[in-house]
Amino acid sequence: MARLAVSLVVIGAVFAAIAGAASAATVVYSNMPKPLPGNVQSVGFQATSTAEFGGQVEATSAVKNPTVTVGMSSWACQSGSAFEDSCTTTPGATFNVPITLNVYSVGPENSVGTKLVTVTQNFTVPYRPSADTTHCAGNGGWYKGGKNGGCFHGKLFKLNFAKLGNAKSPVTLPAKSIISVAYNTFTHGYAPTGVEGPVDSLNVALTEGPVEGKEVPPSIGIDPAPSGIYQNSTWTGAYCDNGAGGTGTFRFDSPCWTGEQPLIQVKSS
């Protein structure tokens, strides 16, 4: 009986391990840099009159119950300006922002297709660190040492939109889709806040390669539209065509975005 009990325990452990492996999420698309640098180039919604911004991705397979991670850049100081030595932040200080993730199908000629998923989550967003007046005196930057270190005015971090489906309500997305984020700032967004605040200094992070204007291929998956992004801005200057294709609507914009794709990682379970 003792041997039988031991055998049953072992068998149970094996099945548990198999079940855990089966449910483990697999990265099917990623252009997220590893390790994360201090900061990268980015698009600020308040600065560019933007309400929604995203890119097209092609995963290695259809995506089941996806988890989507988006790179963001916080330029907000608790007090002072990001470009002055007066920038001060208490270590670990954060602010809250509701952010919407949208996933669309890809229409003809890279147009925006049907909205497949939309979810809004309230995120705890970090303020950027205080100005380092020793290493970055005079420019307001914070300092990160080590390889690829230096003075930065924004801080790169990741937003994680947890599994967008489950056993009761499964979600399967096509391998190719458009993924975007939307949020509101003082005077921009789908529902502007009307109040100045740290969200006005929150940006969407972009790929940043060693050579400007050169494609930064994803480490997993494919970038099917490397010279274009998707955005809704009311500023003509935000677009490659200076707004000739329309403003104030979420649409494809090309061909001036090579090497500047939004940082996105997609996992499938």
Describe this structure in words.
The protein has 269 residues and is mainly beta. The chain is built from one helix and 16 strands. Strands 1, 2, 5, 10, 13 and 16 form a six-stranded antiparallel sheet that branches. Strands 7-6-12-3-14-15 form a six-stranded antiparallel sheet, with no helix packed on it. β6 (94-106) and β7 (112-126) form a beta hairpin. The longest helix has 22 residues, at 2-23. The chain starts with a helix and ends with a strand. Residues 1-22 have low confidence and may be disordered.
List the defining traits of the structure above.
mainly beta; 16 strands; disordered N terminus; 8% helix; six-stranded antiparallel sheet; 269 residues; 1 helix
Give the SSE order as H and E letters.
HEEEEEEEEEEEEEEEE
Strand content: 25-35%
Distance between the termini: 39 Å
* Largest sheet descriptor: 6 strands, antiparallel
| Quaternary status | single chain
Say how many strands there are: 16
Q: Which term fits the overall shape?
A: globular
Number of distinct helices: 1
Report the average pLDDT across residues. Answer: 92
Q: What portion of residues is helical?
A: under 10%
Low-confidence stretches: 1-22
Would you tell me the structural class of the helices and strands?
mainly beta
Can you summarize this structure?
By secondary structure, the protein is mainly β. The relative contact order is 0.28.
Architecture blueprint of SSEs:
Layout: H1 2-23, E1 26-30, E2 42-44, E3 50-58, E4 63-64, E5 67-74, E6 94-106, E7 112-126, E8 142-144, E9 150-152, E10 155-161, E11 172-173, E12 176-182, E13 202-205, E14 229-233, E15 251-253, E16 264-268
Antiparallel strand pairs: 1-16, 2-13, 3-12, 3-14, 4-11, 5-10, 5-13, 5-16, 6-7, 6-12, 8-9, 14-15
